[in-house]
Batch of 4 targets.
Target 1
Amino acid sequence: MLVAILLGGLIGHFAPATGVALKPLGDGFIKLVKMIIAPVIFLTIVTGIAGMRDVASVGRVALKAFAYFLTLSTLALIVGLVVGNIVRPGDGLNIDPATLATGEVGSYVAKAHDTTITGFLMGIIPETVAGAFADGNLLQVLFFAISFGIALALTGERGRPLLAVFESASAGMFRLVEIFMRAAPIGAFGAFAFTIGRYGIASVANLAALVATFYLTALVFVLGILGLVAHRAGFSILRLIGYLRAELFLVLGTSSSESALPSLMEKMEAAGCPKSVVGLVVPTGYSFNLDGTNIYMTLAALFIAQATNIELSLGEQLLLLGVAMLSSKGAAGVTGAGFITLAATLSIVPSVPVAGMALILGVDRFMSECRSLTNFIGNAVACVVVSRWEGGIDETKFAAVFGPKP
């Protein structure tokens, strides 16, 4: 995987036209993975819940997961805000917002206005069951899978034959995941070649301070805050990163955490986490536990304010924090959610000009890799923590992967 990424970067840099032409390799692999995400989530959740003796524990797991998501997401927003105020990467640019070209930004703002909280909540309920799978809507599949899993569990013995069929289908689906993952280096090669060929490494130079600040902040968050959370849960964050290194390289190459979702679920089960917890926490976390996206939002908002010589008061920064907490949920699951949630936040907070988003549009692609990696690691940690809270971890499997408690 690493060799594929390096080769893709070299081709994109030295032969940009060829790198751009390789885009279908990355797109094709991501389509393969997205094709199986919905059935993998459905089968994992249904078999996990239907196999539980205590159906009430489903609600307990969900409450614990959302409590964790809310806490860590808030911490991520605060970290971005604090670092933005200390480092101040936008200082010295002295840009007049009226001079910014906002043509491309307009499409993101339009999408942001379409992703209200009410619309998001109503969108969780699918028009039809088939429609949820056909559209690949993760939250709708999740909603139906949880509902059907509970219903199947409540049918008792009459539901056992169907549960056995689903368990067999789940085994076959994860074998398909293994087959598709053999093509992961090809997908990462094409996707990374396109990124470098299309945007170029040199395009980051003028905004290197923002990009570097974001990457370093995300690193501190992962090793510091998530590292402490992992330590309290009885494992090392570095061991987790090592365990998921293949998936992390895939996320880096494709700039999409979804590309590694099926493999993450499989590996968390292999590490001893209960199937019911994995099925609930991991897919839900992909929409509600976006640590990297949250760091990006507050940091980018402050960068725009500083670049346009706008000093935000403490009250305005707290308003920014509160709005970001809501907007990050309102656009959950939307393609390009990082940039869209930023647009939604700035359109509500009047102090920071939405036009300033044009400043970071050129380097957003380079920051999306870091957002995806941080989100991915955060969801893996969340899965272990909630499994630990539930007391359902298979300690033998867990120790084989992560070693003895640190």
Target 2
Amino acid sequence: MSQKPFRLSVKAVIHDEEDRILLLKRSMSSKGNPGKWDLPGGKIDVGEDFAEALMREVLEETGLTISIQRVAGTAESESNAFKVVYLIMEGRLEIGQLLLSDEHDEYLWVGRGELVKIDLCEQFRGFAREYSRMKD
């Protein structure tokens, strides 16, 4: 029996100046989790540093520039072809005006305690429970 290959994806918990967290609503035409709330981020290109990949993905999806502060947690999911491991980094909004890409239909800034009340992608619900309890 062969094991499914692993893929690494990077996601960001982005805090603004009011310490709210940015969530993005996946487009209804999305292949995965259409209409669900998600964290900004995505796949790492071959040979790309994970921090560079995260900052690139956030810029592409939102038009925002962030700084990465620390590791916030991990999550995982599985498809027919592979397993995805998510490295979730905590970041701070630095500059930019929020402008969504075609991948997302809406955005929302929420308080840490509100994370568990949002219809997040399944793979991030456990992380949201843990993160909402964390103190800085």
Target 3
Amino acid sequence: MKILLVGAGGVGNALAKLLATRDFYEHVIVADYDTSRAEGVLEWIAGRFPEARARFSAEHIDASAPENVTALAKKHGATVVMNAVEPAFVQSIFQGALDADADYMDMAMSLSIPHPTDPYNTPGIKLGDWQFDRATEWEKAGRLALIGMGVEPGISDVFAKYASDHLFSDIDEIGVRDGANLVVRDDEGKEIFAPSFSIWTTIEECLNPPLIWEKDRGWFTTEAFSEPEVFMFPAGIGPVECVNVEHEEVSLVPRFLNAKRVTFKYGLGAEFIGVLKTLNLLGLDKVAPVSVRTAPGPDGKRGKAEVSPRDLVAAVLPDPATLGDRMTGTTCAGVWVTGTGKDGNPREVFLYHASDNEWTMKNYDSQCVVWQTALAPAIALELLAQGVWSGTGVLGPEAFDAKPFLELMAQPEAEGGYGQAWGFEER
């Protein structure tokens, strides 16, 4: 397996570091628009895992054009293209991988477009629809596009598959729940607003109409931040208020698993929700560029520039990849499942994985949210390389056997695994 890793930002950086601890592949090409970021992670690998450095190389890429992805994949003979950049680039990287006759994997799917006249009741184009619409092309090519293989979506979908296959005979609800007690502080120790993940992606998923699935109704949408509930998270996190947020799992799970209801709720907190609502009110969540005046030049005159408001917000906030030293706490991604157990009795369980920032910083110099996101694609790539997982077409994590994934994830590192135990609670 030769891996073209597109993106060396927070998640791509963490994924490259994780791959440096494994030996299932022949070579990894770390590519980024900012080549120095790709070179920087290779320098880290050389210092921490020098024996792995020869299996990595750095390249420049402009991933906005499919032909650029295709050319770089062909140059290195890449057999799989791993997309680790923002979902705005999904279409070009996805197509570029197919044109290069390579497999493809991502952690965030093609973007949604709200319904033009009834956005808070009726879905428009759902997350991943653009990719699933092209499944036949991938099947005919004999190639696999494994989409939504991060933490959420990704590990959450693996948990849902495991519950469906091994714990339940009938499922009432599969509810993905994400909560944390993370705190970010400035140099003076004061708590600050600093999203632990891409603000571009955060705005997209949090302000779009949330998607819900019900067996008798199909997919429908609701108001942003609707149906608040207090959910008790493990790993020392405790109770967190969670609200409906648009997320890939609700688009993925019903395509592969049988459940009466599928939801995604995120523990955002009142301050975070307030900031997002303010950005929306001011139009700072918009993607389309607006004309703004530039700073005065040497002649004292102002010019004009076209700037995306959302890109501006991203530019003034701290880079999530740099927050690790200022962050404390734990993040938890899990799936709450209710229904009838294999024994015919009512059952309610919570399957989860928790990631502690102190541990991820100590071992990988990566903050816990991006490191946890990078864990799943590393495992999935290894299972594909070993032939344990296989397939063609456009598939989600639910299309594969969950047990090998969870076993490899939890197996101690000394025994060839990733040493990441996952939690199981009967409720």
Target 4
Amino acid sequence: MQSATTSHAEPDMEQIYAEEEKVVIHDFSDDLEPSEVMVNLDDLAEPVSESMVFAPTEVTDLGEPELFPAQALELGAEQGMEELALASQGFQAMANSMWDEAAVCFQQLAKKHPTDARIMNNYGLALLQRAISMQDDDHFSLIDGADTQFEAAIMALRQAAHSDPGEVTVLFNLGNALAGSGRYDKALRIFNAFLERSPPTSGALNGRAAAYIGLGRFDEATRDLNDAVSRFGDHPVLLSNLRLLAPA
């Protein structure tokens, strides 16, 4: 559902993603297979490198901070019957953790509505969950695939945020994707933008804490996690991250 906007300034996505001048191209061609990445990766604004992906040195000894799940968005009623059926298929695939099928469904919708933030959010979410499942797999041959899926998810969610900066759920999901792929500096800026424009949530406070952990800013991470527990109770993810920071 659409989040209410506030008087805070919109997050400056271009500043957050300031990099060398490169062209970003989303490829919604018809010939993609379910296992293929859904975004053209040849001209990404922020290429993946080993130093950017997964845990930096500061958190290697602590273990990875946990994140709350990304969130899907309901679609508006303006879609036709065929598109609503495709969306329903995509949501059902998400419910069954069939991320390839979900990505294909929302990719087909995105071809028709590339500026629809809700569709792009759900497309990015499916790619993100696929990246996470590949990252968690023990087969090292899948690591490169996880990297490109994270990159694709970030680009889709970034496009969704450009299309509707007022939808804070998109910012939350984008922050999750950035933190999950080790881009903790940019994740911190996205979670800060979320918390400047929306009341705190357990997921956003935890996400910012995860970014702080990744940056080695442990006191600030502990502050956010304790704040989240105080406001929202002893959620297992919050407690797990607090245990990461507890003295041995």
